[in-house]
């Protein structure tokens, strides 16, 4: 088993773990993206990770993220070793505490994360092969001390700059950023606002983070102001989207993962066009 941190490349793709059939995984890889992030709390068996790895040759696959409340650490550790023995060095385990509104037994998420990391240590999952979902300073510091870095979700380049200052230059900082390939800003907001509003603008870990970044309660209410939606969802042509993603790199990100909206649509055109613009 290699304990080296995987090379994620500069840009990756974030998509729900149920929405990446083999042909889409291969398109992502051949388009030049370095990592495929599987979101939506994949179960502890991590078969979705294995299927994407089986369908591809060299792209890294990461979880964004495994939810510590729904996937037991010993089972996740077993899955990690199964996958790593088959695809050495190509899997990065992202874990996180989710949000309190979604999980009845959600209590003291920081302590639960620490306990989960302890269990992963016991299960032999190397520190260099895992990252944490982190928004606030406390969990970002935990990411720096107990993992290879952080995978913040629903953030801005301003947050990336703050996270980089906490993590330091040698850790993974891989923010997710939503994109809509649509040049009409009104149409783009019509696509981007619903998946941001529901559920994230009603979840306090996200809203607290947005308030730390300077957005008022009024801007967060009622589906989010245009200013907020434009900050969280890059839109325009492929060049405009590529410029927005690069802002995270300028702010200190080591890797940026784009999340094409709408979630249920065919993202192939977006992936291809943005990849070309990023080159």
TrEMBL record:
It comes from the Bacteria. It is an enzyme of class 1 (oxidoreductase). Pfam families: Bac_luciferase. Residues 23-110 form the Luciferase-like domain. The keyword Oxidoreductase applies. PANTHER family: CONSERVED PROTEIN (PTHR30137:SF18), LUCIFERASE-LIKE MONOOXYGENASE (PTHR30137). This is LLM class F420-dependent oxidoreductase.
